[in-house]
Amino acid sequence: ADEAFIMDLFEKEKFDVVVNFAAESHVDRSITDPEAFVRTNVMGTTTLLDACRTYGIKRYHQVSTDEVYGDLPLDRPDLFFTETTPLHTSSPYSSSKASADLFVLAYHRTYGLPVTVSRCSNNYGPYQFPEKLIPLMINNVKHHKQLPVYGDGMQIRDWLYVEDHCKAIDMVCNGGKIGEVYNVGGHNERPNIFIVKTIIAQLHDRLKDDGISEDLIKHVADRLGHDRRYGIDPTKIKNDLGWYPETPFEKGIVLTIDWYLDHEEWMEHITSGNYQKYYEEMYKNK
Ligand code: TYD
Predict the structure, then answer these.
(1) Ligand 1 nearest-atom number relative to CA 192
(2) 0.85 exceeded by the pTM?
(3) 155 CB less than 6 Å from ligand 1?
């Protein structure tokens, strides 16, 4: 969002393609501090778009989210988000991402900027910050800390291994049609409580630690405006670009747990200092 810095960087580096992964991405933080989301996700995006326009970038790709479509009812497993599903956001986070998408598409229509947008389901895998469900639960289980499951834990997310997401972005940047949106997701829908119980079982067996059990689960107050279900229809990216999710959830979760067990130092470093404060603040009334 720092216009002078970005313009300077573009002047120096002469980029040809820009992929905007940068975002404030945690829904709970957006409920506490919406303004940061407008600044980073909306104004950060328009700053990049202006730089791309000024420097004649060959392709701008926006990494977006399925959350721009709102949520689906739990009792209609036949419904999925397609690229033409109306935008219908629930949280300050998803509203900021939908705004950014609209600016990206407007820069195409108004200025002819060569853009594409991808809207992906929940990611998991290496290096994910432990504010998100999977790394947070892995870290808490290892330390025998309570596992805060929002509400009844029956909300459904469509989980995609991060490398499959990266492959999709690469394919859209190289073969996607300018001005188009592509949904990315892999029919890997699971309720939250299933994810938490899978992590408990895996870590119990791997660490041979009887202190790890489902007794650690604590059902806490639900997230405000909590989306019930996300479900992506990936037909367009499959048919147009030949993308499909290569990593089923059962394999991806094992890879992810392996990674976190092999990177204890990374986790310790990242959960020291500010994270402690974040965790206490976020979970104290839950
Ligand atoms: P999250 O990882 O924050 O992703 P998103 O909100 O973008 O889907 O949360 C995934 C699901 O897990 C969501 O339904 C909220 C739930 N959740 C909990 O039950 N407890 C937690 O501590 C967190 C972080 C999330």
Answers:
(1) 12
(2) yes
(3) yes
